[in-house]
Design goal:
The protein is of the alpha/beta class. Helices cover 38% and strands 22% of the residues. The chain has a 9-stranded mixed sheet, with helices on both faces. Strands 12-13-14 form a 3-stranded antiparallel sheet, with no helix packed on it. Strands 15-17-16 form a 3-stranded antiparallel sheet. Bound molecules: iron/sulfur cluster.
Length: 408
């Protein structure tokens, strides 16, 4: 199940028409069978104050029930399938005890056959990787990409984020897995209250010193319902200014490419050939499977999301009810608009021919005069094959896509 996960380096502005199913002359290409699967593992040691993900804390007694329910959920596949990417996210998949993690891996091996060179990713908490038994389960199962939630290397920032680890734990975790894991990714957060440009730069440098293949940098968002939200509302937490947060993002956009990490997506940087193949499935608007509470899947133009409450998801599966919390069949137009939004997140941008093949839509007509306006304002670049965000556009990506999606 293990193997190298290097892929071809994406080229800016290049189209990928290798999978062309019919001549590019209009009409919607049929949906291709999914080659990617996501499994949501909804357990964490504690809930970080900024997190609004689907998960439970202090309910480890529920893990066995979850595994039994997941087994039933996977039955929907009817027969084992081959995938190019398998991604375990959460929550914290590595929070499971080694024997439960082993059971999960056995379950996945029964249903998913990894294609040669497939990417098998697991999100991990640094502290869990200090446990030899857990890492041995991951190694033996053929996991070949680990994404560590480092977030910061500064004690005060980690404390404010209510993380349960120290910067040194990340270093130790990496040291323990680096001899067998070919593809290491680290997550970092910028825009943390109290963070400075200097401390952000130090975080980037310390992350690179661990020699990862991939880095994800996320601006802190304060989501409704989180503790950060109420602290902000009551004035006890002061978010950084938008200007400072933008300068931190720009710092990452300058610094990481200078060290050989190209920005292949708004929040993601990788050495050439080490881009996350699983997440690229989403940004390409392709189909994918998803299992577990809160997990999304996209099949035949319909998006379904497992119920976001872990207990409701469990009860529904156990009683034979539909565990889907949200289901939406996208119209052809909405499908195209969504693909446009996702496609613009990528460095390569969106390609006219690919878009016509995969979404049956004319890219120029879809954006209409908004394209010209965005190009004039320097937010979008017109390439030989389509459009992509400029550096200024990446800083304002949300408002750019709102302008395009709002275009009728
Ligand atoms: S470890 Fe990750 S998933 Fe778990 S609570 Fe913290 S941010 Fe959320």
């Amino acid at each position: 199940m293990s193997g190298t996960v290097r892929g071809p380096e994406p080229q800016v502005g290049a189209c990928d028409l290798s999978g062309l199913t019919h001549p590019v002359s209009g009409g919607l290409a049929p949906f291709r069978p999914p080659r990617a699967a996501y499994i949501h593992v909804p357990f964490c040691r504690r809930r970080c104050d900024y997190c609004d993900f689907t998960l439970v804390v202090g309910r480890d007694g529920m893990v066995r029930r979850y595994l039994a329910a997941l087994e039933l959920d996977l039955d929907r596949l009817r027969e084992p399938i081959e995938v190019d990417t398998l991604f375990l996210g959460g929550g914290t998949p590595t929070h499971l005890e080694a024997q439960d993690l082993h059971r999960l891996m056995e379950l996945l091996q029964r249903w998913f056959q990894l294609a040669p060179g497939a990417e098998f990713s697991v999100e991990a908490n640094p502290l869990d990787l200090l446990d030899e038994a857990r890492t041995e389960v991951l190694r033996a199962a053929g996991v070949n990409r680990i994404s560590i939630g480092a977030q910061s290397f500064q004690a005060d920032e980690l404390r404010l984020l209510s993380r349960d680890h120290q910067g040194t734990d990340v270093c130790e975790a990496v040291a323990r897995i680096q001899n067998w894991i070919p593809n290491l990714s680290l997550d970092l957060i910028f825009g943390v209250p109290g963070q400075t440009l200097e401390s952000w730069r130090e975080n980037l440098e310390r992350a690179l010193a661990l020699r990862p293949q991939h880095l994800s940098t996320y601006g802190l968002t304060i989501e409704k319902g989180t503790r950060f939200w109420s602290l902000t509302k009551s004035g006890r937490l002061r978010p950084l200014s938008e200007d400072l947060e933008s300068r931190m993002y720009e710092m990452a956009m300058d610094f990481l490419p200078s060290k050989g990490f190209h920005q292949y997506e708004l929040s993601n940087f990788a050495q050439a050939g080490w881009e996350c193949r699983h997440n690229q499935t989403y940004w390409a608007g392709a189909t994918y499977h998803g299992f577990g509470p809160g997990a999304a899947r996209y099949l035949n133009g319909t998006r379904e999301v497992g119920h976001r409450s872990t207990t409701t998801w469990l009860q529904r599966i156990e009683t034979g009810e539909d565990p889907v919390g949200h289901r939406e069949t996208l119209s052809d137009e909405n499908r195209a608009r969504e693909a446009l939004i996702l496609g613009l997140r990528r460095e390569r941008g969106v390609c006219r021919q690919e878009f016509l093949r995969d979404h049956g839509s004319d890219l120029d007509q879809l954006g209409g005069v908004t394209w010209t306006k965005l190009v004039t304002r320097g937010l979008v670049e017109s390439t030989a094959t389509g459009y992509r965000l400029t550096r200024a556009g990446r800083l304002l990506a949300d408002s750019v896509t709102v302008e395009l999606v709002g275009n009728e």
